[in-house]
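Bug #77: duplicate submission created two jobs. Keeping one. Sequence:
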Amino acid sequence: MKQIKFTTPFTTGNEIINISKLFDLKKFSGDGHFTKLCSGHISDKLGVDLTLLTTSATHSLEMAAILIGIEKGDEVIMPSFTFVSSANAFILRGAKVIFVDISPESLNVDLNLIERAITTKTKAIVPVHYAGMSCDMEKLMVLAKKHNLYLIEDAAQAFGSKYKDKYLGTYGDLGCISFHDTKNIHCGEGGALLINNKKFSQKAEIIREKGTDRSQFIKGIIDKYTWKDIGSSYLPSELNAAFLLAQLESSSQIISDRKKLWNRYQTNLSKLRDVYNFKTLTPDDQCNHNGHIFLIVLDSKLKRDNLITYLNENNIQSTFHYIPLHTAPAGLKHGKFIGEDIYTTQMSEGLIRLPLHNQLKSDDVDFVCLKVIDFLKKEFSNNI
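Kept job's structure:
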């Protein structure tokens, strides 16, 4: 029996062609031919004035924290159900992270709880578009404007997803994208910072170029460059950009193929949710997601762990995530959970991610669903 892998990085075949061109161009460090093509492609697709390629979404978030002037004593609001980079970027600048509970429908931050967590120290709200699905971004923008707060979108999983007619990552002051090889569109390790607030454009280029105005020098605007501000080396190599361009040029098809698999999972499993007491994500009517993750949430950690074991015995890889940040040692030290943890831990302990990648076949999805249902039937029978 073949193994159904949880994830397999997809390649189009054009990545190696692009990389081979670099040997003629003799330019391997960043901000060359392919970096410019990638940045332009993303800006055109998403409707963004300025896109800066970065080495990761982690670094995009770190740049965002520097850009909005995070200092010691500031507070930043975000969900606890997210990857550590969401919090680390702001903690590194001295902020305290304020965690609030999530919505059980979307696993995104519960917008109704954010306002209660805002204090005079709050500087930004960081919504995380989990699984490429959006919360109500218009409501969130109104809330941020009302309290004069920056809005930074952690859209690491959301490249190509939309809320209404706009792409995720383009609503806030800044948007952070991941191109890690676990994502739909990737270059092994990479990311992008979307500059939606024009006041950050020039400073963002300086921060990314180690604190210098080298980008203006390259554009011929100045005749020499110098150290202007704090910064670091957030610029990816041309090797990464050459690989990424091939992915970006096929991104619509890559996402479309993933959504077909996602929809097949949903069709197979959603009608049984009430019968066997589990949840799947149901996208908001205004959300056009990118098919990044398919998951189910069971009613106990033990049942979830047993299902992972059962699937593994049937050569199906699956996994869980995240351990809520507010329960982790660093989260206890650098953050604070406001309100009651009703859903964050509960959802985390019951969640299982099923295989979803572009090498997966429809028959594979059907087989995974069959084994999930077999397991749930046995559990149901044992509890009668």
